[in-house]
Amino acid sequence: MADYIVGLTGGIGSGKTTVANLFAELGIALVDADVVARDVVSKNSTGLKAITRRFGTKILLADGNLDRSALRERIFNSDKDRLWLNDLLHPLIRQNMLQQCKEVQSNYVIMVVPLLFENGLDRLVHRTLLVDIPPELQQQRTIARDAVSAKQVQNIIGSQATRADKLSKADDVIDNQGEISALKCKVNALHTLYLHLSSEA
């Protein structure tokens, strides 16, 4: 059971997943908010049943799974529905992540949360780690990776906390503009620090 939680975050295209996987290679358990968010609305889940009660079966696919694009369209056009959905899902996601943290066998656990500061989830962790790159590099990497337009990427970056805000809140920062070898060195150094901090917790 891991009693010490490090919250890992970073804007789109920053390299959060790469950093998380480097920690995993060192034997550290990961709890990923994006995975949990999918689990809490999986087929026959409590979350999906509540969503179906509110919006009807038209937000389901033929196989009984959630039709994400139909739900997105529905909440995109209604602040009230979006708030309702957030009020339903955020506590479920929080509870599920904390439960997973309790169950892992690891000296500490990395909780990967894209919107760690935006959703106030930094309150659940002992320490925060930000993967940081300049916005123009975020844009280049995301366009190359996801084949999306520059405007779409700008909208996503604009909807997240500012770089300055995240930098001011983070306990630790990894600058991810360099080579993978440099990144590994930074992760190894932080791993040593987190082992020390978790042993004292």
TrEMBL record:
Q: Which pathway?
A: Cofactor biosynthesis; coenzyme A biosynthesis; CoA from (R)-pantothenate: step 5/5
User: What EC number(s) is this enzyme filed under?
Assistant: 2.7.1.24
NCBIfam families the UniProt entry points to: dephospho-CoA kinase
Where on the tree of life does the source sit, at the highest rank? Bacteria
Q: Which CDD domains match?
A: DPCK (cd02022)
What's in the keyword line of the UniProt record?
ATP-binding, Coenzyme A biosynthesis, Cytoplasm, Kinase, Nucleotide-binding, Transferase
Transferase keyword on record: yes
Cited InterPro entries: Depp_CoAkinase, P-loop_NTPase
The keyword Zinc-finger belongs to this UniProt entry's keyword annotation: no
Signal peptide (UniProt feature, chain positions): none
This chain belongs to which protein, by name? Dephospho-CoA kinase
The UniProt catalytic activity note for this protein reads:
3'-dephospho-CoA + ATP = ADP + CoA + H(+)
Name the principal localization, coarsely classed: cytoplasm
Its function?
Answer: Catalyzes the phosphorylation of the 3'-hydroxyl group of dephosphocoenzyme A to form coenzyme A.
What family does the entry list? Belongs to the CoaE family.
Positions binding ATP in this chain are: G13, S14, G15, K16, T17, T18
GO molecular-function terms, A-Z? dephospho-CoA kinase activity
